[in-house]
Amino acid sequence: MTDIITATNIHRKFGTGALEAHILKGIDVTVKEGEFVAIMGKSGAGKSTLMYQLSVLDEPTEGTIIVNGIDVVPLNEHESTTFRLNTLGYVFQNYALVPDLSAEENVMLPLLMRGYVWAEAKAMARAAIDGVGLEGKYANLPAELSGGEQQRVSIARAVAGKPKILFADEPTANLDTVSGTQVIALIADLNRNDGQTVVMVTHEREYALGCDRIIHMEDGLVTSIEQLK
Amino acid sequence: MRALRIGFLLGFRQIQRANFWTTALIIFVMMLTFLNLIAVSGILVGLIAGSERAVQDQSIGDIIITALDDEEKILQTETIRRTLDTIPEVASYSIRYTQSVQVTANYKTRRDFGIEPNTIGARALGIDPVAENTVTALADNLVEGEYFNPNESGYILIGALNLDRYTAGFADITGSLENVFPGDSVRVTVNGASQEFTVKGIINAKAGDVASFVYLPEKELRRLSDSSSRDANGIVIRLADKTPATGIAVKAILVGQGLDEFGIIRTFQEALPKFITDIKQTFSILGTLIGAIGIIVASITIFIIIFINAISRRQQIGILKGIGIDRKVIEVAYVLQSAFYALVGSLLGILITYGFLVGYFDANPIDFPFSDGILVAEPIGTLYRFIILMIITLFAGFIPAWIIVRQNTLNSILGRK
């Protein structure tokens, strides 16, 4: 398997002078295509900050990040937005659905942005919603869905366009145990059945046990890498 | 194009799912702003337009013929009369004779010659009562008494500005008749010749000189002034179609027949004093300035609405950018919302203006001291104001959206400053 993410000597600092906070202190990470990687650590360890660097949502203070063969650090705002649209998928812990759009329209939104025509995007969105087990809930607004259902719509939105990498930032944080387990199973299925590369941040070990590898972090450094498969 | 399409989807859904009453309130504010824009300048201009209309309807008609500069009277009045009878566009006309007169009221009861005589100098208008009433509806301006009956004699109508009870407090009017009412007798003196008339009615109007004349049947005025000439001082013409274009066309016919050799022929617009046109333009500019303040208030309102809307959705905007939605899409969505508020508000404003206000003020003019004000809302002016309001609103919607959308994506997602 080839490396789809290669991050070298990643530093991330916030603030300046006495208020400077050095969150990532020189991290080297690789993720292989088709791999399911979990990033774990205590609160403040820097796991989310690392994921934001890898997922092109933030820019490191120092270091290089190659994602899908492209050096993403020098990309400007427009280029990184386009890159995220075409290459990456996101699942946020608070579902992050547009409240005014139906489930179907939420999933269609990035597809339309990628240039699919309405009918095509609609068919792809419905297939993705069916794929997360929400058949028939196409027209529901997010407010009409439970937290678990909203997170599944969020996953459908992330994967409908078949991204190269799916990033999930604590996707179970706001869910009850049953819904959390279902969401993790869904993400694991995507990895196992479709070969979807997944990078997931979590602080719950039982959810990370289905991954290929766990990257453990502490105080801005990778402390160990646990190979599970 | 793609950003526009998706932006429209986002914006449309935001409007569709928004709280009905909030949307209604915003649209109501926009409607009031638009009405303010139209109505303030419209009523200011309407003040003068109402006055103009009154002068046209009650005083100088659609075309007026007056004596040449070096003549006292219109020459060949009979020729002009015969010509007017042949022009189909002329609906009616009134031939007027003017004469300076002295009117005395207390000549019967004044025993003590040390007391000031109840006398005024006035301008008398000799008219054919029927013709004058057809052209200017003079009888409609009666505030006391009755109008002349055809072919009767010995009666006079007095303009209210000649009577003390109508002019009390007017510093610019000196001399007025005291305690004169319909049924009283007054003596009219012209060049030493006097005749007694019974006051038949009192005329009052805001238009021009209507309330300052005393009115006599033309035959009696000419007899009193011992004038055998039939040449008049003024001919007021009413056209079947009162539009300026018809006025110009009929004037051209009259000039074409050589009548301008006998008198000065002017359309209503030409006869208007320049100061009225100047005041009209001044009020229009003033109205536009006041309306501009309304536009600024509206744009600030829209700015605040969109800014609050966008700032409260800052995290959502960050996430949209995070999943790859271009910032233009989000900006279009907010611009569409502000355009929607402005469009619906303006359309409602236009509907109320033309469906109700213009007609209402036409039928019920505002009673200003010197004119009956109407609402003037020229469609082209309304269109310009609508376009200006739309453009400014679009900017007012775009700027807050631009401010929020340009913020760092991750900071927006995480709610960081």
Task: Please tell me about this protein's structure.
The complex is a heterodimer of chains A (229) and B (417). Chain A is of the alpha/beta class and 229 residues long. Chain A has a single domain (3-223), classed as P-loop containing nucleotide triphosphate hydrolases (Rossmann fold, 3-Layer(aba) Sandwich). Chain A contains seven helices and ten strands. Chain A has helices at residues 47-54, 77-87, 103-113, 118-131, 147-159, 177-194, 205-208; strands at residues 3-14, 21-32, 36-41, 62-67, 70-71, 88-91, 165-169, 197-201, 213-218, 221-227. Chain A has a six-stranded mixed sheet with strand order 6-7-8-3-9-10, sandwiched between helices. A four-stranded antiparallel sheet of chain A has the order 2-1-4-5, with helices on one face. In chain A, strand 7 (165-169), helix 6 and strand 8 (197-201) form a beta-alpha-beta unit. In chain A, helix 3 crosses helix 4, helix 4 crosses helix 5 and helix 5 runs parallel beside helix 6 (177-194). The model of chain A has no long low-confidence stretch (mean pLDDT 88). Chain B has 417 residues and is of the alpha+beta class. Chain B folds into two domains: 2-55 and 276-414, no CATH class; 68-262, no CATH class. Chain B has a six-stranded mixed beta barrel. In chain B, a hairpin with a 4-residue loop joins strand 11 (366-367) and strand 12 (372-373). Chain B is elongated. The relative contact order of chain B is 0.19. The chains are: A alpha/beta (229), B alpha+beta (417). Chain A binds chain B through residues 52, 57-58, 77-78, 81-82, 84-86, 88-90, 92, 94, 96, 98-101, 105, 109-110, 112-115, 141, 157-158, and chain B through 2, 5-6, 9-10, 13-14, 16-17, 315-316, 319-327, 329, 409-410, 413.
